[in-house]
Amino acid sequence: MDTSFEEAGAAPSAPGPTTEPPAAEATTGGPGGATGGADGAAVGRVAAAPASLSPSRAGDFMQCPLLYRFRVIDRLPEKPSEAATRGTLVHAVLERLFDAPAGERTAPRAKALVPGQWDRLRESRPELAELFADDPDGQRLAQWLGEAERLVERWFTLEDPTRLEPAERELFVEAELESGLRLRGIIDRVDVAPTGEVRIVDYKTGKAPRPEYAENALFQMKFYALVIWRLKGVVPRRLQLVYLGSGDVLTYDPVPADLERVERRLRALWEAIRRATETGDWRPRPTKLCGWCDHQAHCPEFGGTPPPYPLPLRVVGSDGVEQGRMGAD
Ligand code: SF4
Fold it and tell me: In terms of Cα–Cα distance, which of 264, 267, 262 is closest to 252?
């Protein structure tokens, strides 16, 4: 275990927002976007380029441009999944554990937080009730909560929270690049060593990837490192992925050249998203990950039909009043 960030404690613990980044990855309106719609009645209607990118949405576009469109432009609903919800629950528990004094951050205390955090999550997201709607005797829910507890417990074999004092938890970050692209996301934990060195930590409830896929896993961390670099002028000393599913820790010490490469890659990605927004050419890219995609019914690769494109676009009338909208803003 790397100890240089332990007992870092200079900065007070400051819980950040616990919500997803504000949904502003694609916006509409404004001059300069493409005109012309499927209905041929597009005068005054424009589709604007995305205003910002998060690691998740960048990952969506890299995986499948059509998936990005369904999520960001069409905003098609998706069913909650047990695995993703368990991940959210475990993250909430690990965040809240740091409310306790250092000496009391024990595994039993963390496990005891699981039921209460599950209640809070259900209250804030009523749609999660459907996850266990067909589980009248509560057996499946009990197993699911038990698995969340095991993941929480495993964390104690990888890190020692009694020796950590995070500078930030669930930190919302946003930075604008020179190109005008805004990058945004939520970092699970930021540790600052007494020397001022910064470590960015992300918890994963899945298993560590095979070495040949490690670069993909690190993309998200380099994205955050780039944001921190742009915001604070400091390249984080270490990026750390903590895999609770397999009990592994993946670390990487970035250098400026790494982050410049990521910036170039994001710029190219943003350009590709702008082009797709303007042309409506959102190509499906089928892979084995399609098995987890909620949108097969709308995907041509599976015999489906996407919603009409462009969607009803934001129309700015002569009085400047917006009369419609498209996508996320
Ligand atoms: S099913 Fe596959 S190809 Fe189709 S939108 Fe989803 S990820 Fe893309």
Answer: 262
